[in-house]
Amino acid sequence: MSALNDKAVDNGRIARRFAALKAEGRAGLVTFITAGDPDLETCRAVLHGLPAAGADLIELGLPFSDPMADGPAIQAASLRALHAGTTARKTLDLVRGFRATDADTPIILMGYYNPIHAYGVDRFLADAIEAGVDGLIVVDLPPEEDEELCIPALKAGVNFIRLATPTTDEKRLPAVLQNTSGFVYYVSIAGITGTASADNAAVGAAVDRLKSRTDLPVAVGFGIKTPEQAANIARVADAAVVGSAIVTRLADGLDADGKARPGLAEDVLGFVRELAGGVRGARA
Amino acid sequence: MTRPNTFRSGPDERGHFGIYGGRFVAETLMPLILEVEKAYREARADPAFEGAIREQLKQYVGRPNPLYYAERLTEKLGGAKIYFKREELNHTGAHKINNCIGQILLARRMGKKRIIAETGAGQHGVATATVCALFDMPCVIYMGETDIARQQPNVFRMKLLGAEVVPVTSGARTLKDAMNEALRDWVTNVADTYYLIGTAAGPHPYPAMVRDFQSVIGDEVRVQMQELEGRLPDSLVACVGGGSNAIGLFHPFLDDPSVQMVAVEAAGHGIDKGPLAHAASITGGRPGVLHGNRTYLLQDEDGQILEGHSISAGLDYPGVGPEHSWLHDIGRVEYVSATDQETLDAFQLCARTEGIIPALESAHALAEIVKRAPKLPKDHLMVLCLSGRGDKDIFSVAQHLGVKL
C-alpha cells in the first residue's frame, strides 16, 4: 500500500541522487551534523563544504533538549547547538542558505517531534519545502502515529523516511514500510547512536530482507565510525550513514570554552573526505 | 465540550485520552511497548494475577491503610471535615509501591530478567529496588546527578536493597534526564529488560497501567468512607507531578458527579515568576510531546523542554500524565497550584497539629486544603491523599528554614 508515497510530489532530489549513485555503481555516503553545532557560522561552513568533501546526502539534526534515542556525542552536539541559540527557524535558514549554493544534494532534517509540534505541523512543512528540505526523519514518530506528521508530510510533498530496526519483525515490517518514502533507514543495532557497531553479515541479511519487501533504497546507520566500516556497509547497502563519528570529530576541534578552534571546519571536512573515500572505493 | 457518558473508559485502543497520550517512541522500542500492552491485557483478564497483587498489597505493603479523620486539623481550619488517606503508612513510605508490586508481577509473568527504572526524589527508585529485592531480580536505577546530591539517604537505601544506582550526567541531571537515560538503556537491552515506569505517564499502556495499579487508593477510600460516614466524599485533593497518586485516588470516583476533585501542582517560587520558577505543567505549560506521550509540558517557544523548579524533588518533572491533561481540558478535575512557601507552611502545620510529617509532595495538597477547607461547611467530607511520609525531606526543609542539622 504505497499509494500515498506515489502521490508525494517531492522535488525528487532524493530519488535522483539514488538513481545517479546506482548509475555510478556505488553506494552513497550520508553525513549527519547537528544544525548550529557548535555555532551557526561554523556549522554553515561545514554544511556548505560537505558535497565537495563527498557527502551524497546530508542529514541535518534539528536540535532537541531531550534526544532520548541518541548517545553522548549527539546529545552533546544538540546541547551545544541550543546554547548557541539554534531554533527550528534558524535550522531552516541554514537549509535555505545551503540551497542557494547547491540545488542537487538532498537535505533531510532529523530530530524529534516536539520542536515541530511547537512550530505547528502545517506551517513547518510549508516553511521546510520553501527552504529546500527534501525529507524528515523523526525518531519518536513510529507508524502508530502516522497521522501526526508522516501523512501530512507526504501530502505536502516532503519525504518521510522511516527507521527499521533489528526489533522490527516480519509482522511489523509492512507497517513500517507503508508510508515510507525516499529511502529506508536501517538502524543496524538495537541501541542509541554512536555506540556499538553491528556485525557485517547481520547487516547484509537485514538489508536483503528489507530489499525483498521494498523498492526503496536502503541506507544503514548507527555505529559506523571509520572509512573501513563505511566501506563494509557500502558493499551491502545503498548508502552508509555516519553521524556520531563526524560530530565527535567536530567536538575534538573545540577549545576549553567550547568555541571552534581555527581550522575546525576543514578538519571535519577532511574526515568526511576519508569516509567518502571508503564508501567510493568499496565496490571497486 | 460535550460531556462523555463516562470518564472512566479511556484510553482508546491507541492509548489516547482525548488528544493526549499515544505512543511516541523510537521504532526499536515499539515492539516492546506492544508486548507490554499485550501482556498487561492478558494479565488483567487473569484472576490469578489480580489475586497475587492483592496478596502482596495485604501481606507485604500493609494495605488497606487507614482513612484517618484529621480531627485537630479540621478544628484548626474550622470548615470541612478532613480525612487523610494514609499512603505514607505503606511499606517504603509512599504510594509508589502500589504500582511497583503490579509491574514487577507483570515483568515476571513476561519472563523478563532485569528491571530498570528512573527516579527523581528517589521514592520510586526505593520502591523499585524493594520489589526487585523481594523477587530477586537485578535492578538498575537511573537518577540525575543533581538529584543524587540532594537525596543521599534514598540513594543509600537503594544500594542497601541491592540496586545499582547510575548517575545521569546528561541535560539538567534531574528526573527528565533520568527518564531519557532509562529509555536509552531499554533501547539497548531490548531482549531481557523491563522498564518499570514510576508515574502515570510515558507511552501507552503505561499511563493506564500505572493508574490501574494506583486505583487501589480510591477504591479503598470509597469503601472506607461508606463505613465511616455512610456516603461518598464531597471532595478529593491530591498533589500532581506525573500524577500517579492523584489519578489513583480520583479514577474510581470520576463518574460520581457529586465528588469534586482538585489536583495541586507545584508553583515553586510562583507561576507568575516565569517558566523556570515552577513545575506546574498544566497551570503554566502547554501541550507537546515528550517521553512517549502528548501532554502538557513546560517548554519554550521552540519546543525545547524546560527544567521546572519545586522545593519537592518528586514534583519537578516538566510533564504530567496524559489522563490529567484530558481531565483538565474537559473540566472534570480542577488543577490549582501551591508555592514552595505555602507548602512549607502546610508541612509544619501538619507536623504540629496531627503529629504526621508529610512528604513535601503531599504538603502541596495540604496547602490547598488550608486554603479551601475554612470556606466549606462542616458536613463537607474532604479527602486528602497523604501520598508519602516526609522523613526524606527533613534535610531540605531544615535548609529552607535556616536550621543547620
From TrEMBL, chain B:
Gene3D superfamilies given in the database record: 3.40.50.1100
Record's catalysed reaction(s): (1S,2R)-1-C-(indol-3-yl)glycerol 3-phosphate + L-serine = D-glyceraldehyde 3-phosphate + L-tryptophan + H2O
Residue ranges of domain Tryptophan synthase beta chain-like PALP in the record: 62-388
Pathway of action: Amino-acid biosynthesis; L-tryptophan biosynthesis; L-tryptophan from chorismate: step 5/5
Keywords (A to Z) from UniProt: Amino-acid biosynthesis, Aromatic amino acid biosynthesis, Lyase, Pyridoxal phosphate, Tryptophan biosynthesis
PTM-bearing positions, type N6-(pyridoxal phosphate)lysine: 96
Needed co-factor(s): pyridoxal 5'-phosphate
Enzyme class at the top of the EC tree: lyase
The enzyme's E.C. designation: 4.2.1.20
A Gene Ontology cellular-component term: cytoplasm
Gene Ontology MF terms in the entry: tryptophan synthase activity
Statement: the UniProt record of this protein carries the keyword Transport: no
NCBIfam families recorded: trpB
Function: The beta subunit is responsible for the synthesis of L-tryptophan from indole and L-serine.
Subunit structure of this chain's protein: Tetramer of two alpha and two beta chains.
PANTHER family tied to this protein: TRYPTOPHAN SYNTHASE (PTHR48077:SF3), TRYPTOPHAN SYNTHASE-RELATED (PTHR48077)
Family (UniProt): Belongs to the TrpB family.
This protein's name: Tryptophan synthase beta chain
Provenance organism: Azospirillum brasilense
